[in-house]
Amino acid sequence: MSDEPRDESSSARPHGRQFWRSLAELEGSPGVEEGRGDEFPPQASEWPDGLDRRRFLQLAGASLALAGLQGCTRQPVESIVPYVRQPEEIVPGRPLFYATVMTLGGYGHGLLVESHEGRPTKIEGNPSHPASLGSTDAYAQASILGLYDPDRSQLLTELRGVRIWKDFVAALQARLKAQEALDGEGIRILTETVTSPTLVDQIRAVLDRFPKARWHQWEPVTRDAVRLASRAAFGRILETRYDLRSADVIVALDADFVTAGPGAVRRARDFADRRRVRGDGSGMCRLYAIESAPTAAGTLADHRLAVRAGAVPIVAAALARELGVPGATGAALALEGSQARFVRAVAADLLARPGRCVVIPGEYAPAAVHVLAHAINHRLDASGATVVQTEPVEPEPIDQASSLRELVEALRAGRVDLLAIVGGNPVHTAPADLRFAEAMLRAPFRFHLATEEDETSDYCQWHVPEAHFLEAWSDARAFDGTASIAQPLIEPLYGGRSAHEVLAVFLEETPRPGLAIVQESWRSRLPAAGFEASWRRSLHDGVIEGTALPALTPAHRADSVREAVGSIRPPGEEAIELVLRPDPSVFDGRFANNGWLQELPRPLSKLTWDNVAYVSPAMARRLGVASGDVVEVQASGAAARLPVWVLPGHPDGSVTAHLGYGRRRIGRVGTGVGVDLYPLRDAVSPWLVEAAVTRTGERTDLASTQEHFLMEGRHPVRRGTLAELRANPGFVAEMEERPAREESFYPPHSYPGRAWGLAVDLSVCTGCNACVIACQAENNIPVVGKDQVRRGREMHWLRIDRYYEGQEEDPAVHNMPVMCMHCEQAPCEVVCPVGATNHSSEGLNDMVYNRCVGTRYCSNNCPYKVRRFNFLQYSDERTPVLQLGRNPDVTVRSRGVMEKCTYCVQRINGARIEAEKEGRPVRDGEVTTACQQACPTQAIVFGDINDRQSRVALWRSEPTHYGLLEELNTRPRTTYLAKLSNPSDDLERG
Amino acid sequence: MSQIFHRSTNTLSRVTIYAAVFLAAGLLFVAAALDRSPYNTRQDVVLKQPVPFSHRHHVAGLGLDCRYCHSSVETSAFAGMPSTTTCMNCHKQIWSDSPMLEPVRSSARTGTPIRWTRVHDLPDFVYFNHSIHVAKGIGCVSCHGRVDEMPLMRQAQPLQMEWCLGCHRHPEEQVRPRDAVFSQTWQAGDQASLGPILVREHRIRGARDLTSCSTCHR
Amino acid sequence: MTERTLPGRPPIIGPGYTSGTVTDKISEVVLKRTPRWWYVGFGLSLILVLLFFYAVAYLFTKGVGIWGVNVPVGWGWDITNFVWWIGIGHAGTLISAILLLLRQPWRNSINRFAEAMTLFAVACASTYPILHLGRPWVFYWLMPYPNSLGIWPQFRSPLVWDVFAVSTYATISLLFWFVGLIPDLATLRDRAAGKTAKVVYGILAMGWRGSARHWHNYESAYVMLAGLATFLVVSVHSVVSFDFASGLLPGWHTTVFPPYFVAGAIYSGFAMVLTLAIPLRAAFGLQDFITARHLQNMAKVMLATGLIVGYGYLIEIFLAWYSNDPYEKYMVVNRVMGPYAFQYWALIACNIVSPQFLWLRRVRSSTAALFVLSIVVNIGMWLERYVIIVTSLHRDFLPSSWGTYSGTIWDYATFIGTIGLFLALMFLFIRFLPAISIFEMRTILPEARSVEEGGP
């Protein structure tokens, strides 16, 4: 059906850009309509299936009794329970903030955690931490839910039997006694990547006490390639970090540098600072992305070259050759046509800005690409400027794959007597070809420290519940080496232990508590004089002064290039490659039981509750499959059946899929969600394997929060190039008509005082989802489950719309955060029969849950469809531990009421009350919405638009400023800055 | 044909028809009255407390300031309840063996807090902030009544929305000088003329701001 | 009455009746032993009523989430059924009130059960505004009453207007229907054999003795109510149409809604009268009272209103094109060719195409054909509301928020349930009350004609 309306509208449109949301739509294929045309599709079932997984939904029914009675009963008598002895820093009703640090893949990210009467409720970034600068990623935002996860392991067990800590200590130390004679040659410690100085000290101490003991590290999201390349290029393993603030041209080699890898949040911030267009946009940097599956970086790129992951090394080498990097030669490097032209243009652009450009190799790219990148950056004098080499952040950087293999061999040979698995879930994540699980059974004594009872716990006699990072003392170092102390905000809810406390068992008769251990290790590092003071300051600031690693100027080994180029094997033409990546939501699987992350619409696909095989449109046609059709993917001697998702811009002959799903044991939320792809991985090349794909003929229902449809010539996302802006600064405003203010049936509101407004800069939105989770955490937004999402009932107050533009092989992708617009002439307000949604004196569109009767009229009449309705009892009012984590300043909504973005009115009121008490106006920046605070690229700004000097007012005065659907004269308070790009002329012309 | 109805039926039916009208009206009236009655609002109802604490004795008798026990009333949304130690400060010495105070002592001994029954209990979807009301010169008495005359604590006002709105629409009727906020006995000579002046002095926002939904509901 | 002499026009009452025989024939329907088929029919509809209660109980336990509604489609079967039922009611009021004022004597034999139908339809309709609420237990917040919250309903909202419109409508219809019944209730009181029947009918008759004074008061009251009801015929469905017309969605936000909703209401109403009248007269052998003439007249009204509705559809499309509003234009294209195209074309077939057969006298005079047509039109009118609601909602302004809608078995159950409720009430009515106005039939007897024509 779709063809006709598209044509007529696109011809009617001044800026005849063709927006589309997915292929089915570009082709206008009838397939899209199937199941919609028919009035009673199968999924119109009486009750959501798959609920058994999320029991809290099943409780919906029972909870009605309460809900129903609320209407007519009197309030229950409540009691006040004051402290017996009140801690002096606590003022009941006022939150406190503590600095701490969270690790992901070993690297630290500084946080400030909000705590209400001792209950951590919200996580923010630590402004003084280099990796954060006040921002966070989605993982950090969601980790607060992990703290209160009722499925976390709660019991210390031996062979499933409940034990206490003492038993464990006794059992372990008995083993150790036996090992002492043998110098501990039977002892093997397996950890994830470790940057914690304290933990390394402890492990080293263990190795001193047991000289023959071994320490292995295995991180499923492995950085082995990075380490190997560094060793090849500089003779030893170094840390490479990038300073994008001074980079005019950036080339990403299969690198999602704004969301993946240590320091991504910081890189995103630095990058965005060079992309935010103000005035004529001078100083805007240019980004070339050469990548396989589209990534956040790719969506921001001014030019994107889609190549198979297997071909990235070749393109990299070709680029190196183009740049005259010595050693980059060889027939294999000959590129043809568009690729060659692309590489030439990139090379020219790079050469024009020596020392002010950078080539970033991807975290998951093979070592060869990293080696080439090092060489290119060296050639371009980027080293020391935009690229910084430092000592490694990991005290013991090793090749983890071979470390793990070594462990498995030892296990097989029966040389392991005591296997200590401290964190991690190797049984699930170890490369399949190692067959780790069966090997580890050879060790007579096995224990596992983990936050959940998972697959690995099944293979260990002893399981020790691990304390959540908000429950334990520890420390960690950031991507630039900056060390931070992790301080607990709450006593372990389930009596968990930290890695330090477990390691202490190896060293001490009566293991000390975490605080003593961490403090002691820092006593030795910090100047003895005034240790207490500096310790306190470190805790307060969340960073330890002077621990950032200084830049080095290592000698670059030129011959590394020849080796790298020699190692490149061009992929076969027919061969299909399987590209494996950590999941944007559940990462390596550790967040699988986190409902917020599971239900978080994945970037680009907007899928929830599943992992899929992303394939290119052409490939889907070849296979004769559409999104939702199940295919069988064979690789590394294993096979997996998972649904296809057709992803525009994905290279041909390539399948991209995310790890971390198909958890066999974790909890009510995560067990059995998606498909486990670790078996398809092999130790040698963990991120890229040869694969065969065959269609099975089956179909599954996928829950995507966006159905694919045409833009119909509308301009939700207005975009243009720097050149267009300079030629005609008004071009954004001209895209749609702006009706006169007085064109209204009702008299206009007046805002003599403050007038709150929010603006989003589309040029720098990476679609990383941090804002979505931040909003969910701040506003007690419930999880509804896959089936409800499929029925279009997701509850996110803030959604990120995704639009495609251009051709299916290589479309431009636009991300657009959409929350309540707080219209000055709000269509929702006039239709609510009970006045449950009203206009506040400061222009907020207030939503009064306790007045709402649930006619849903407001949602129907909202042109932005940003209102969310509690069709069932979604928020869990029964699990006590979950209630601990709720934001006490925000009402928990019951069934049958409408809800929506409030601009975090609780924060506005808080700030206003403080200001009023001090008799001063609210300062600009004093109120930050949760989304704004989390955003790594600072794409969101909030404030008083009546204050001419406020940042939001300045943004609104930009030429690129526009309102969504402003032609309807709703006069939105949430507005946007058009997405600008900075394409290079030669490629544009070509 | 025999009469099935007695003559009186005519009158009867007429009466019933009219009565029905009044009955309906009456029922509505009763419902409205019940809604505002102490049965529903708990106004003036004395609730059972673990310790029969007398505000009259402590405030009128001993002249304690509100803030001695409700210490966070000026800084936080929650006025604060005295911790057991606060009580024991004095009751270590005086009444130290009174059976009435046993719950307090045992709390101090065992470290288990005292469970007071909430007297002023707003619904959970109402976000009342003590500190701002105090800062703007709304006296304790305005909402809590003359606690110095209450041997046992009770709710002095209905605490229904219309009652809140009354003040949010006309703050000048309740506002008092900042130094009189915690006074139980302060009387305005002439509230009608004093009120508007104080409203200006304390920069109390207009009714349109104070009656915006999000002022109290989030 | 002159037209009754025209050739080929069947009379509005069979030949050879006297007021006595009329009274016997109608009142015996009520007073004689209950026929077996009545028990069967009533039993079946009771089962459906049980289904209704079950569906509602489950709804109240779980929440509206058991229905198919979602975001963007916040209304579905619920409001569709509401509008459909309200619409059906209109024919009754029209027949009773407007035709009375226009002195159309042929109405006399059908107005009684048409009014009853109105009443029961409104009863069914008025459940939905409450059922569709997220928190039905606070439905009374939609009504203005002095409360301790110190706030009123939001009077700009069409839903509040609905509350007034529908409740007024229900009240007037009830009064009108009851007042009309009083003389017949008296008749039944006097003819009933059993004591209980006498007492019950007696109480309901409110001491009617048919004195001149009674008749005088009666006439004035009846005409007064008729006057009131006349406005309602137009106002109620106009207000209902505001629910949509005052929204800003493409396909809702249009001025043509009130007139064409009213026309549609009468259209569906007459269809329903036919659907009921045809089996009714067969069952009780009332062909002499509800004659082919009545059926033909109603068929003509259907044809007329059907054409108005058709005009409404055309105007919608024209305005979409004429306004050159991209959203409106897309809405039309989407309605005609989008995922709900089937429902759209089905409604066109039912509402626009099928009534064209009524141009043919052969069809108009075929009871079977009329019966089938009337049912087809009822289906069509339901589809019309469904299409208006769903197609406008499921693809509005931002493609990113577009979705799809389909009812669940709970939607179906609730709807079928209300049909059961309607039928059950209907069965009770025809069993215990005169389905045809006895005394008004007397006025159209030949013997009464002189009075009729002599009268003012």
What does this entry look like structurally?
With 990 residues, chain A is an alpha/beta fold. In chain A, the strands form twelve sheets. A seven-stranded mixed beta sheet of chain A has the order 7-6-18-17-16-8-9. In chain A, strands 21-26-23-25-24-27 form a six-stranded mixed barrel. Chain A has a four-stranded parallel beta sheet with strand order 13-12-11-14. Chain B is an all-alpha fold. Chain B folds into three domains: 8-36; 55-81 and 118-216, no CATH class; 82-115, no CATH class. Chain B is extended, with a radius of gyration of 25 Å. Chain C is built from 16 helices and no strands. Chain C is 70% helix and 0% strand. By secondary structure, chain C is mostly helical.
Secondary structure elements and their pairing?
The complex is a heterotrimer of chains A (990), B (218) and C (456).
Chain A: H1 3-12, E1 19-20, H2 23-28, H3 55-58, H4 60-70, E2 79-80, E3 96-104, E4 107-116, E5 119-125, H5 138-147, E6 157-158, E7 161-162, H6 165-181, E8 187-191, H7 197-209, E9 214-217, H8 224-234, E10 239-242, E11 249-253, H9 264-273, E12 286-291, H10 296-300, E13 303-306, H11 312-322, H12 337-352, E14 357-361, H13 367-379, E15 387-390, H14 400-412, E16 418-422, H15 426-429, H16 436-440, E17 445-450, H17 455-458, E18 462-465, E19 474-477, E20 483-486, H18 499-507, H19 514-523, H20 531-541, H21 559-567, E21 576-581, H22 595-598, E22 607-608, E23 613-615, H23 617-623, E24 629-635, E25 638-646, E26 654-658, E27 688-699, E28 703-704, E29 719-721, H24 722-727, E30 756-761, H25 770-778, H26 786-790, E31 799-805, E32 812-818, H27 827-831, E33 837-839, E34 845-847, H28 857-861, E35 868-869, H29 880-884, E36 898-899, H30 905-917, H31 930-934, E37 940-944, H32 951-956, E38 961-963, E39 974-977, E40 979-981, H33 985-989
Parallel strand pairs in A: 8-9, 8-16, 11-12, 11-14, 12-13, 16-17, 17-18, 21-26, 23-25, 29-40, 30-39
Antiparallel strand pairs in A: 1-31, 3-4, 4-5, 6-7, 6-18, 10-15, 19-20, 21-27, 22-28, 23-26, 24-25, 24-27, 30-37, 31-32, 33-34, 35-36, 38-39
Helix pairs in contact in A: 5-25, 7-18, 7-19, 8-13, 11-12, 11-13, 13-21
Chain B: H1 8-36, H2 38-41, H3 55-61, H4 66-69, H5 84-91, H6 102-110, E1 116-117, H7 130-135, H8 140-144, H9 161-169, H10 191-201, H11 207-210
Helix pairs in contact in B: 5-6
Chain C: H1 19-31, H2 36-62, H3 77-101, H4 111-131, H5 158-191, H6 195-205, H7 212-245, H8 257-284, H9 292-323, H10 326-337, H11 341-353, H12 361-364, H13 367-394, H14 409-432, H15 438-443, H16 446-454
Helix pairs in contact in C: 2-14, 3-4, 3-7, 3-8, 3-13, 4-5, 4-8, 4-14, 5-6, 5-7, 7-8, 8-9, 8-13, 9-10, 10-11, 11-13
